[in-house]
Give the backbone structure.
Amino acid sequence: MESTAKAPVLVVVQLTGGNDFMNTIIPYTNPVYYDSRRKVFIPENETLPLNDTLGFHPSLGPLKELYDNGNVAIVQGIGYPNSSRSHFRGMDIWHTCEPDKIGNEGWLGRTIRDLDPEKGNVLTGVNFGRGLPRALTLTGIPIASVGDLDNYGVMASISEERSRSDLLDSFKQMYASSIGTGPVMDYLKQTGLDVLKGADQLKDAPTKYSSKIEYSENPIAKSLKDIVRVHLANLGTRIFYTTHGGYDTHSNEMPTHPGLLSDLSGAIMDFFQDLWDHNASEEVVMLVFTEFGRRMQDNGSGTDHGSGGGAFIIGDRVKGGLYAEYPPMERARWEGGEDLRHTIDFRGVYSTILEQWLGLETTHIVNGTFEQIHPFAA
């Protein structure tokens, strides 16, 4: 595809816990849905129709508005063969593209390496949240992980380079007795220096930002606001990552799930409206994914771990619509007699974004060649 005026940027939003795809994009005219979901279902008259067979959950009004504007690609039935129902293993597979062995390199870590092979910018990849998702990890690749953007810059108050070096040497000495000296400790020290350098660059991002958008007071809204603030600071970040938790809805799904989707949908709309207001949206695409879908049948209060989930690709340059196939609803075609089947491999969706949006070669990032979709407008 043609290059944008600015370097393309990818924002990844992880829905942690396994979002219930069938209650997100609802087959509201299919009797199998209502036969399977006796307690955990959305009535037909509450669904926000996309066509005569599928509709959005009623809490996704802002996302439907983006869809109606042509800015949302819905990827149906995303998954992989022999899907793991373990949160940890399932997410690890999504993060490393290694379904058959334990991987130690994140797909976005590899992506950042290819985007910035000289490691010239410690902010090419930035995570908003505690810890560092496996997707972003790759030895030697600096990643900034920001819990609170407004306070992140306090690390920059250690102003003198010598003082910083002394501090990090002390850090090395603390751990040398247990793990020794040498390359590992040198790597840890360099990582610490990268963090401090990133803090230097990030500390002014909040002060340069002004907006008329009033984001909600919830974690995903705060994270997406922080992403906008860093993006508008023009620090060269190409990959942003954040998570929205709470989707492991084994129980109390009917009161819990609508609130999650409402927070998510509202935050995404505010995020893009903020970018539009600043004329900074055309270079940004968002991927929203989760580790697996839920079972076909409810358990009386919620839904248990399943497969065949869904994803969203959102942005100005997205050609909105439905992509891949909705998992087959006939009981005879349920995966393992109880799950939604996957109809497209998640690695093909990664490849689509990597190649068609970021302009990268994909095979070594996703560990193979997979069928792609075509959700980007020329």
Q: What stands out?
A: The mean pLDDT is 90. The chain has eleven helices and twelve strands.
